[in-house]
Design brief:
The chain is of the alpha/beta class. About 55% of the residues lie in helices and about 10% in strands. It contains 15 helices and 5 strands. It has helices at about 30-35, 40-50, 90-95, 120-135, 145-160, 165-175, 180-200, 210-215, 220, 245-260, 265-275, 280-290, 300-310, 310-325, 340-359; strands at about 1-10, 15, 60-65, 80-85, 105-115. Helix 4 (about 120-135) runs antiparallel to helix 5, helix 7 (about 180-200) packs across helix 10 (about 245-260) and helix 10 packs parallel to helix 12 (about 280-290). The longest helix is centred in the middle third of the chain and has 20 residues, at about 180-200. The termini are far apart.
């Protein structure tokens, strides 16, 4: 794939309705997509910024509609010749009619993704997805966690073959410049998310973190029918195990925890203990049914769990997580400098604690 700088009229470019940020792709109109994309606070801030001044440092990346992998399903109009790869939100702002001097006929500088001679369409599509991944998965930008996980899963499926999962996670990690753990965890969690959606309610975006209770380790994954060697689901519909019923009950379990004021970390720890103590899917399913019928109140398990954890163990675990988060802070992101004040505050408080401990 080659990126060619060009100038193209705004009216000729479509927002990509199949972009991973739209988790459930629908055949909606371009106007509906524009309105949807400009609802968020970050999009409104971008629009205000573009109304002040536009600098084409980072160009919108587009491709010809006929090279899109779903070209036959795209809901296009006569003027449309291109579809975005990266820059859907900026395009939505430009198409909103709220930026002076930017009309449908206005030409803007773009980068056109061109399929090179001898390059297969499969290789071209893979390069398109890597381009999207670098822009939207590597840094905290436009895509929400489920969209990022979906995109990583697509990249995984692109290269899945004879290699072991660990090698595939490593390859994606190297291509995007993000941690192997983030790649692995996101792909496994998205697989669980999709399986639950197939047989029960779809987990809400706000509740995505609660799925950590089931993707944490081999034990928790195997409890819902994920094979330890491939991280793929077994044929759970045609087995005597209770995997399908357990998965179907997960949305209700999460709702139960939320109503009880239990956060994602405590829910993860509670479920890990329950799974460890109930070593068959039949036993686990019975316990879950008890929890959902109030015979075994999850809040009581929560209180018991809290008393089992000493203050030292609690803070040891909390500090490990804080260290991990700070270590992965994206210093190179455009917005990173805006948060330097918070980092300085953290540094100041840590310095005070260390002074007390060392005095």
């Amino acid at each position: 794939m080659k990126l060619i700088p060009k100038e193209v009229a705004i009216k000729e470019i479509m927002i990509d309705q199949y972009n991973p940020r739209f988790v459930n792709a629908k055949k909606v109109s371009q106007q509906e997509l524009i309105e949807f994309m400009l609802e968020s606070r970050s999009s409104k801030e971008l629009l205000r910024s573009l109304q002040e001044d536009i600098k084409w440092v980072n160009r919108i990346v587009i491709q010809k509609i006929e090279t899109h992998e779903k070209s036959d399903q795209i809901n296009k109009k006569d003027d449309h010749q291109y579809v975005t790869i990266e820059g859907n939100t900026r395009l939505a702002c430009l198409k909103s009619g709220k930026i002076n001097d930017y009309l449908d006929e206005t030409k803007i500088p773009i980068l056109l993704a061109h399929k090179e001679d001898g390059e297969s369409i499969e290789s071209f599509n893979k390069q398109v997805r890597i381009t999207q991944g670098i822009a939207n998965v590597t840094v905290v930008k436009e895509w929400k966690p489920i969209s990022k996980a979906k995109h990583l899963s697509i990249l995984y499926e692109d290269i899945k073959g004879t290699k072991k999962p660990a090698e595939l996670y490593k390859q994606i990690s190297n291509e995007l410049g993000i941690g192997v753990k983030e790649v692995r965890d996101s792909i496994i969690r998205y697989r669980i998310y999709c399986k639950i959606s197939e047989i029960s309610e779809t987990i809400a975006e706000a509740n995505w973190g609660y799925l950590e209770a089931f993707d944490k380790n081999i034990l928790t994954r195997s409890s819902i029918g994920l094979a330890s060697d491939t991280n793929e689901f077994l044929d759970i519909e045609n087995t005597e195990e209770n995997y399908s019923e357990i998965l179907a009950n997960i949305p209700d379990l999460i709702n139960n925890a939320i109503r009880s004021g239990i956060n994602t970390k405590l829910f993860r720890d509670i479920m890990h203990e329950i799974i460890k103590e109930n070593d068959t899917s039949e036993k686990l399913n019975d316990i879950i049914n008890d929890l959902l019928s109030d015979e075994n109140d999850i809040t009581l398990i929560s209180k018991k769990k809290k008393t089992e954890v000493s203050d030292k163990d609690y803070w040891n675990k909390e500090l490990d997580e804080i260290l991990n988060k700070v270590s992965n802070f994206p210093n190179m992101a455009e917005w990173a400098s805006e948060l330097s004040g918070k980092l300085k505050s953290i540094k100041s408080k840590i310095k005070k604690h260390i002074n007390v401990l060392e005095s």
